[in-house]
Amino acid sequence: MDPLALLPYALAAAGGRVDSYEVTSLIAAGLTLLQRSALLVRALSGRRAAFLLPPGPAWLVALAASDGRGAVLLDANAASAEIARSIVRHNVGAVFTIESLTLSLPAETPRVLLDRAPLVATVIGNDRRLDIDLGSHFGLDLVGDSEGSGSPEECFVLDGLDRALSHADVLGHTRALLHRIPYTPVDTTLAVAEWQSWPLLGATLIAPLLVGGQVVTVPFAGVGSATAPHRADAIWQTADAVPTMVVGTGADLLQALGVPRDATPPSRTFKQVVAQVEQAEQREWLAVLAAQYGAALTLL
After folding, report:
1. Which domain holds residue 276?
2. 113 and 46 belong to one structural domain
3. Which of 13, 131, 243, 256 would staple 144 via disulfide (CB 3.0–4.6 Å)?
4. Within a 10 A sphere around the Cβ of 82, how many other Cβ atoms?
């Protein structure tokens, strides 16, 4: 396997950011985690990784620490029994997650807690709990190619669809998105979506980073807590980031950014609203929403 043909290195080469972190530092932290944890290496040997993570910088750390193997994207809203079946069905060796989501995992499943990433990770398995200092990733020189075609090896496994995407698939599909959606290195993309399905994963994370842009995420408040008022408040907490692009499902965008037809138009504007619609009637409301924010609308 050619490391330079793997997605993490392509993203590192582009020079983007997730929240306040440079992608290069997040990828380097993941590689440091893999180098420093024999327990993680053994758990993943011959098996897949899995992500049970909210959007955020830790996601890129997990991507790099998966060492190019297929990562199963688990749904944090799924029942514990369903998650357990997915772990067995997809031959998962270790799950990258955060402390608040560990109750959804079988007790015997090795896991890596990334609450403090990219500074520290906690690896749990075989009755051991080890804190891994990732501080040595600072200054690590990464070489990658954001223009490469990508490896044919598995990159992501979409759990709900049992569909696998190779590194080449992800890069190819992402470049197709870039032909439709005008991401640039100076854009900041607000991700109002979970990173567990395609093409939302491509539109909210991979595409903006592949051109060297910035991605900002909504603060995670726990499973089942994303009610409309909470999500709207969380969105406006990102005001300092001044996003120019906003991406999510139709339902998420209508809940988080929607304003009544007779309300005063918002003072904030976006360049582009990108939505994956689940119901036909969402299209009309999304067109109204985009117009109120002075944005063009692209439907995935």
Report:
1. 181-299
2. yes
3. 13
4. 15
